[in-house]
Amino acid sequence: MGVNIDVLRCTGCKLCQVxxxxxxxxxxxxxxxxxxxxxxxxxxxxxxDVIVCDQCGECIEVCPFDAISMVxxxxxxxxxxxxxxxxxxxxxPRGAMFTHPxxxxxxxxxMCGECTKYCPRGILDDLAPHDEEEVDE
Amino acid sequence: MYGYAGxxxxxxxxxxxxxxxxxxxxLVHNYIGGRGFGAYYVYKEVPPxxxxxxxxxxxxxxxxxxxxxxxxxxxxxxxSAKSPATGLYGDSNIGxxxxxxxxxxxxxxxxxxxxxxxxSYLFIDDDRVEIRNAxxxxxxxxxxxEEILKEELGxxxxxxxxxxxxxxxxxxxxxxxxxxxxxxxxxxxxxxxSKNLKAIAVRGTKGVPVADIDGLKKVSSAAFRELxxxxxxxxxQDLGLAQVTTWSNSIGALxxxxxxxxxxxxxxxxxxxxxxxxxxxxxxxxxACPMATGKVCKASFRGxxxxxEGPEYETTALIGSNCALSSIEEVAYANYxxxxxxxxxxxxxxxxxxxxxxxxxxxxxxxDIDGIEARFGSLDAFCDLAYKIAAKEGVGELLAQGVAGAAxxxxxxxxxxxxxxxxxxxxxxxxxxxxxxxxxxMTCDIGAHHNRAWSITHDIExxxxxxxxxxxxxxxxxxxRPLFDCIGVCRLQWVEMGFPLEYxxxxxxxxxxxxxxxxxxxxxxxRIWNLTRSFAVREREDFGRKDxxxxxxxxxxxxxxxPVAGSHITEDDLNVLLDEYYEARGWDVNGRPKSETLxxxxxxxxxxxxxxxxxxx
Lengths: 137, 617
Hints:
CATH superfamily of the largest domain in chain B: Aldehyde ferredoxin oxidoreductase, N-terminal domain
Strand content of chain B: 5-15%
CATH architecture of chain A: 2-Layer Sandwich
Helix content of chain A: 10-25%
Radius of gyration of chain B: 22 Å
Distance between the termini of chain B: 38 Å
Order of helices and strands of chain A: HEEHEEHH
Low-confidence stretches of chain A: 132-137
Number of domains of chain B: 3
Mean pLDDT of chain B: 97
Number of helices of chain B: 27
Shape of chain B: globular
Shape of chain A: globular
Largest interface: A-B, 33 and 41 residues
Structural class of chain B: alpha+beta
Helix content of chain B: 40-55%
Number of helices of chain A: 4
Largest sheet of chain B: 6 strands, mixed
CATH topology of the largest domain in chain B: Aldehyde Ferredoxin Oxidoreductase,  A, domain 1
Low-confidence stretches of chain B: none
Strand order of the largest sheet of chain A: 1-2
Oligomer: heterodimer
Number of strands of chain A: 4
Number of strands of chain B: 17
Strand order of the largest sheet of chain B: 2-1-6-3-4-5
CATH architecture of the largest domain in chain B: 4-Layer Sandwich
């Protein structure tokens, strides 16, 4: 399990974030993305971090409402069951469960693969669906 | 309104009040966004004769309809005000993530007037807007200020800051953002500093509505595919704009030793390849940009090691060859000094290069320059002068006025080699061997800047000694290039990678739902061009052809060496260029817009105002 992303090659353009929001919310709003680029430019490392779910499944265990499940290797939140209690957000080891004031459940990567098509450095390929041909637009 | 956040944030620092105003159809229809909004507010709201450093000046920070969206590089913020460098309309644009974040916060543009009583910063978190105390940041460097605010507020805030040079009012003080991006030109930082405004911090969570999201997906998906499959992309990602340096030198356009020459014999030490090999530590991009021309570099000097974004071409040209530094690491260090002090690298490179030539030629002596051994090639001298300029200490007080101001004191022989137009120092293309580029610099509305009409490639294509017929191309560029500054997109994909303009024409209707054609948009740019010109005509009774004149060096000295050695442009040539240009623009022989031209462009009120003042007939 886990995703391999060469963060040292990330340029911080955040194109993945806007692609994600357009693909999953039909909206230009990187704050509704399931992936997040964080600047570490002001640290010794001078780099960006790519925060995204690696489908580890720990949230499945902590969800008090059984709203989260593993489907074909992808962790999925059922928005009809989710109460947006925030426990999975707090417990996520990668900090990859995101919240937005207009969305009534956490936002997480479902490996739709859209961002992988656009990353200018090609570092997000691990987020594409693994077991089938890339689905075209 | 599709493509827009829908509001203008008004800030009056004198009263401490902030309030939103709805974005109007008139403003959007006539001025598009970005630079267009800036021109509109500066013309309308800055009274003639206003002190650029006074509370009546307005600072406009504007995004455009393309900014923050799923498309290549919608990252540009235009910052406009009456410029302290020229006393005329000024603007400068900045990449990074500010434009996008501004729109997510629900704001298309911020219009700031007045002056805060104490050092302050503007805090915007969606609908929450506050003017906060910034006394703990006053005096700090631009990058340090951003670092501290990021610590205090969080990484999601996008922050624009000014450095010490803006606090003291250096006419070429810039605005910094995103570690190492600058709105460098025209002293926009000085205006911000004069308002006691140390920084602007923005965060937003809102989406930007577009007219046809499926249409946007379709066009942008094809656009990105084309860019990502272009083999040139990797070269841009590796070398960034630093690769322009050797090209510019090879065509005889690289400013060298205060524009005495346009060919630098030591260019190899400044090349993009050397930079990549020796000092680049990270590639960095603006919002949604595949090119990632930002290069974070490490440089050491005087026992201090620093990180800096850059140098890109302009900095290398003006600080590197123009001050005859010998290594890209030296240029990077000087770049750091300028960034932290908040000095525009283009103007600083000009000012220091000018001082070095004046010193070496004996126009000034050592006492005139505080005992600094200001010789070409000396990074020590560069740094010493930069710190003095930012602090306005000793000779720095004079040099802080730019080359035009300094030449008034250092005399006629220095005025001949003070390289500026309208008071703004010349950017990175020496143009004695490129008449259309020369004309572009002469007629640029903000002073000697290349970005309105980078037509040097046109000179190369049609003949570098040809004068006639060049004006039309300059006019064409002066509309299409600023259009990018209006819509809020970086033009590098188009300019450097040959990415077709058709994509932008296709994106405009799917984003905005408006039926303006590309040609309609260019007419709006012509309107904006005439409005900024009208600002100058309204501002100064004697404004005209003389203000479009280049420095004497360019027509009194032929190019001494390099690929276009002997190139020479005469005063007659310059007059031919201007005659053709004014004719093409519908301006009179003195370069003032004719009434009918303004009226054709929907600027009837402006025509009436200027006629009443007796400025146009």
